[in-house]
């Protein structure tokens, strides 16, 4: 069974920076092209900034031109959850960390092969661990 991290909103607010809290706990977004990982090319693993769950690896990252880090597949599909999102007058698929429920971004069906998916993820939702 996957691990689950359960904390109150107040606990998250005390532990996270204002930007990380806004995006991950209140389903916000960062401005395009402003995130620290948008143009990062280093090899390594991207983890959830709230709980440390490994989410994406650099080998699946690609330049989508959208202004957010984009990946064509998660490191492990069990580590993320896809949720239907009908906010903002459109239907999209929200991507959240399966361990702690952090909002990461959205997934779209306009990505490259081999999956055809584009996981459009907020940099503040991620922490990067560089490969040695």
Model description:
The chain is of the alpha+beta class and 132 residues long. The chain has a domain at 39-130: Peptide methionine sulfoxide reductase (Metal Binding Protein, Guanine Nucleotide Exchange Factor, Chain A). The chain has 2 helices and 9 strands; from the N terminus they run ααβββββββββ. Strand 3 and strand 4 form a beta hairpin. It is globular.
CATH architecture of one domain: Beta Complex
Number of strands: 9
Rough outline: globular
Largest sheet: 6 strands, antiparallel
Structural class: alpha+beta
Query: From N to C, what is the helix and strand string?
Result: HHEEEEEEEEE
The CATH C-level class name of one domain: Mainly Beta
- The neighbouring-strand order within the major sheet is 3-4-8-7-6-5
Superfamily at the CATH H level of one domain?
Peptide methionine sulfoxide reductase
| Global Rg | 14 Å
Helix content: 10-25%
Question: What is the percentage of strand-forming residues?
Answer: 25-35%
């Amino acid at each position: 069974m996957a691990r689950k991290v359960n904390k109150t909103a107040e606990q998250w607010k005390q532990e996270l920076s204002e930007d990380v809290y806004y995006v991950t706990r209140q389903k916000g977004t960062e401005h395009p092209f402003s995130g620290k990982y948008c143009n990062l090319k280093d090899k390594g693993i991207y983890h959830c900034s709230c709980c440390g769950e490994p989410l994406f690896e650099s080998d699946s990252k690609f330049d989508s031109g959208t202004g957010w880090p984009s990946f064509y597949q998660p490191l492990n599909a069990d580590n993320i959850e896809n949720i239907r999102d009908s906010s903002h007058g459109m239907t999209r698929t929200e991507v959240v960390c399966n361990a702690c429920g952090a909002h990461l971004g959205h997934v779209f069906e306009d990505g490259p092969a081999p999956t055809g998916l584009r996981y459009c993820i907020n940099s503040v939702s991620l922490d990067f661990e560089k490969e040695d």
